[in-house]
Amino acid sequence: MEKPQTWSWVLLFTTSGTLICCAIPITLVSIGLGAVVASMASAAPWIVTLSLYKGWMFTISGALIALSAWAVYRPGRSCPADRELAAACARADVWNRRFIRVSAGLWGIGFFSAFALPYLSY
């Protein structure tokens, strides 16, 4: 089976970073597990630095998702005429579409948790 392109993994990594910095800590604090967040911050202090720049993180990761969605869903894309290459292209296309959907879903969860949930919990 053909592996998805490398940028798909970059997408998933970037959107997972938004979850680690913002969504998971905010959600844990919202359900009353602030001590867990404090121990996370002491064990991994880089989480605090990431959360300071959450606006940039969400902007860059959102732009990467939009760019990759355009690259995968743009009109006029076609696979090669060779039967084997066309099958590999189709499999890679399916995986790329899955990665984009998962990444967009993770980004949406992170965005909601980082920007909307703090205002809803007051």
Question: What does this protein structure show overall?
Answer:
- The protein is mostly helical and 122 residues long.
- It has one domain (6-120).
- It is built from 5 helices and no strands.
- The protein has helices spanning 6-30, 34-43, 46-52, 54-73, 83-120.
- The longest helix has 38 residues, at 83-120.
- The model has no long low-confidence stretch (mean pLDDT 78).
Name its key features.
122 residues; elongated
**Alpha-carbon distance between the two ends:** 49 Å
Mean pLDDT score: 78
Estimate the helix proportion, in percent: over 70%
- Return the domain count: 1
The count of DSSP E runs of length 2 or more, i.e. the number of strands, is 0
Number of helices: 5
Uncertain residue ranges: none
Radius of gyration: 18 Å
Shape: elongated
Elements, N to C (H/E) = HHHHH
Structural class: mainly alpha
% residues in beta strands: under 5%
Largest sheet: none
Short description:
The protein has 122 residues and is an all-alpha fold. It has helices spanning 6-30, 34-43, 46-52, 54-73, 83-120. The model has no long low-confidence stretch (mean pLDDT 78).
Write the layout of secondary structure elements.
Elements: H1 6-30, H2 34-43, H3 46-52, H4 54-73, H5 83-120
Helix pairs in contact: 1-2, 1-3, 1-4, 1-5, 4-5
